[in-house]
Design brief:
By secondary structure, the protein is mainly alpha-helical. It has one domain. It is 58% helix and 0% strand. It has 6 helices and no strands. The chain is globular, with a radius of gyration of 16 Å. The chain starts with 8 loop residues before the first helix and ends in a 5-residue tail after the last helix.
Length: 154
């Protein structure tokens, strides 16, 4: 169990982020944020399995099914709701095709999709909110999640 967030933790997170040059595409950062939020939610209920890092909408779709199937207590439900919103956005916008479906009814291919800058920010915001809720409960470490997202060792 991680220590709950305390006053001053936000400055520690900002300081950690400023110490490192992150040269990853914003799409990869948004997907990494969602991956870490999913890991944190799973761990909060004693599950150490997956998910593997998300690379496209189908990965987000598979995890969305897992997240929606979790039965959680009320405090964790708030984290689940945030993660659900972020994953749902990733399913619809990350591409190359919307997650969970290869073609529309009738066999016509689904059009490719690409996330906007706003989509990516919203995915990261939902993931961060989910991790923040779990960190406030002492169930996750926001600092460890940040380090995993920006790919640095603690």
């Amino acid at each position: 169990m991680a220590a709950p967030l305390e006053v001053g933790d936000a400055e520690v997170l900002h300081s950690e982020r400023r110490r490192h040059v992150v040269e990853l595409p914003e799409r990869d950062i948004a997907l990494s944020c969602l991956t870490e939020a999913a890991r944190a939610l799973r761990r909060s209920v004693g599950r150490e399995d997956g998910p593997e890092p998300f690379a496209h909408a189908d990965d987000a779709y598979r995890e969305l099914e897992v997240v929606q199937g979790l039965r959680l207590n009320e405090p964790r439900e708030a984290a689940q709701k945030e993660l659900d919103a972020g994953l749902d956005l990733a399913v619809e916008r990350v591409g190359p095709l919307p997650g969970g479906r290869i073609s529309r009814p009738g066999g016509r291919p689904t059009e490719e999709v690409r996330p906007t800058q706003e989509d990516l920010v919203d995915m990261g915001r939902h993931a961060g909110a989910s991790i923040g809720i779990l960190a406030a409960l002492g169930e996750a470490s926001a600092l460890e999640a940040l380090r995993a997202v920006i790919k640095v060792e603690g």
